[in-house]
Structure to design on (300 residues):
């Protein structure tokens, strides 16, 4: 059997010819099973490489898209608050104070009212006064640019052109909520309606929109479930829930400790001359003209 011939040659006769063909660089057929194994191996490697390149490209595109559609993380100098920096527009405060996230169990049921939801009184007013302090502080011209504004338009300290005045957005939102609250008790806070500013109603409507915008921007995704309540025929919402909150106490403590006194800044600062200005609302012009007509009528 060893001498069985194929194509007229025995195995012994074919061996020298195969060696000669290899020396001359002729490609010889190899075992079909080995060929398939080799092809599978390289196919697998190519698929893995292609998948890797696709994932890297996809991640790069996704990151660039996120950066183009979301707040910039450029300009930060510390590693504080990495998650908040990715999910918030640029704020230098995130480099200055640690704001950890905390899970809280919240009870917003009808009669579980904090001091902020009590009828007017000295204790309630003091609590709201502390809650709504402006939190004025300074940021640099570079910070102003990073938040998307023009440093040539923002007010800076008279003795330091790189100390631009600002207040955290949350304090304005709380100020607006307090304005709406006080209007619920108008007889207590504004017993003489004739003393109200001509802008009082405009201010309230502005504040209503500020609170609405804040809620829609935050858009909490926590859930309210429903319960059956004794002696009540329809399902009732259960306003207790768990939420992940920013550490308000830590942030508020930092703001209070670093607050610039309003009575030494916006209350007394005046133009030095040459400042760029923004236009006032046309409604203010109308109100001022009406006030002037009223004064003239009273003098006649």
């Amino acid at each position: 059997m060893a001498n069985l011939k194929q194509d007229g040659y025995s195995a012994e006769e074919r061996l020298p010819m195969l060696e000669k063909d290899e020396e001359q660089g002729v490609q010889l057929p190899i075992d079909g099973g080995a060929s398939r194994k080799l092809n599978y191996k390289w196919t697998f490697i190519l698929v893995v490489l292609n998948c890797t390149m696709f994932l890297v490209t996809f991640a790069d595109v996704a990151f660039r898209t996120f950066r183009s559609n979301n707040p910039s993380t450029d300009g930060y100098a510390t590693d504080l608050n990495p998650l908040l920096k990715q999910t918030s527009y640029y704020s230098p405060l995130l480099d200055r104070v640690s704001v950890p996230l905390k899970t809280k169990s919240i009870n917003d049921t009808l009669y579980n009212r904090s001091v902020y939801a009590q009828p007017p009184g000295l204790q309630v007013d003091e609590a709201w006064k502390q809650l709504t302090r402006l939190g004025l502080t300074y940021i640099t011209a570079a910070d102003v640019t990073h938040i998307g504004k023009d440093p040539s338009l923002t007010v800076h300290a008279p003795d330091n052109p790189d100390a631009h005045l600002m207040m955290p957005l949350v304090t304005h939102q709380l100020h607006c909520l307090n304005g709406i609250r006080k209007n619920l008790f108008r007889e207590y806070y504004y017993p003489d309606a004739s003393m109200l500013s001509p802008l009082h109603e405009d201010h309230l409507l502005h504040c209503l929109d500020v609170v609405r915008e804040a809620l829609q921007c935050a858009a909490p995704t926590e859930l309210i479930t429903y319960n059956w309540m004794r002696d009540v025929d329809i399902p009732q919402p259960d306003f207790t829930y768990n939420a992940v909150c920013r550490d308000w106490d830590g942030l508020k403590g930092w703001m209070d400790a670093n607050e610039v006194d309003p009575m030494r800044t916006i209350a007394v600062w005046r133009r030095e001359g040459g400042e760029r200005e923004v236009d006032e609302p046309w409604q203010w012009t109308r109100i001022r003209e009406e006030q002037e007509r009223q004064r003239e009528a009273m003098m006649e």
Notes: The two ends are 137 Å apart (CA to CA). The mean pLDDT is 83. The longest helix spans residues 32-69.
